[in-house]
Amino acid sequence: MRSSHGQLLSCTLCPRQCGVNRLEGELGFCRAGAQAQLYRYAPHHGEEPPISGSKGSGTLFFSRCTLSCLYCQNHPWSQQGEGEHYDTERLAGVFRELAQAGCHNWNLVSPTPWLPQIAEALDQVRGEGINLPVVYNTSGYERCESLVAYESLVDVYLTDLRYASAASSEAGSRAADYVDRAREALALMLERLGPLQCDENGIAISGVVCRLLVLPGLAHEVIENLGWLADRVGVEVPVSVMAQYSPAFRAAEQQPWNRRVARDEYDQVCQAVESLGFDIGWIQDFEGDVDDDLVGHTMPQGGFSEP
Q: What is the CATH number of the domain that holds 71?
């Protein structure tokens, strides 16, 4: 079984490379400690259809985050640290429980600070013959060296491209280098795993899905990222366009973050998806007040389908 101790002596798991000794109680930007911290876990039915399927995605919502988004809907655990601590045996028990519940996969939400601990727990359950595809559900703010070091854990990357400028990523998430890091990471993910592959039941077994959250006043950045995808990696990567932004947490205090996305902004993104030739993926219904369920459907303009 792998040990997490080495990586935690001087933590450089994410692009911030804080270098703190987490085993001695030192805390970096994300404030993750030595023992994995989990807010909750359960079968989840609100992901993209190949992830959730009919039985749900076995989702683990990890505490702490390498970003600090002023609009974060998960701030009680991502930034304020709510959640319980899990040693290796207890975390392995979560993986066992989700597999026994019949989930299609293990879905790791914001796993980056906890990669060494996750690897230990997965080694244990896989050693017992229990195995599901692992979905790496990330903001996209990743260090390529860490992705390479832990690539054997992952079957499917569910990754964001959230900004296209340093000014926006610094204002929204305190990460001026987000664009370069997220694009480098996505290119690496596609190089390693390729386009999304599904089984005979339409459940994802390998590959990459790219999520694009439309933020208020930043539809042009989503369009820029779509253009980058088309030019750099091609339109074969499934994209998931999301309308669910809501001005949560500290967003109510700042413009333009203090409003929902306007219909014309969202329509601009949908039109760019079609004009650039993306025909695999999902577009979330625009309904003003939307929930976080994603639906695969054909756009009014046509040309968008499930893989």
A: 3.20.20.70
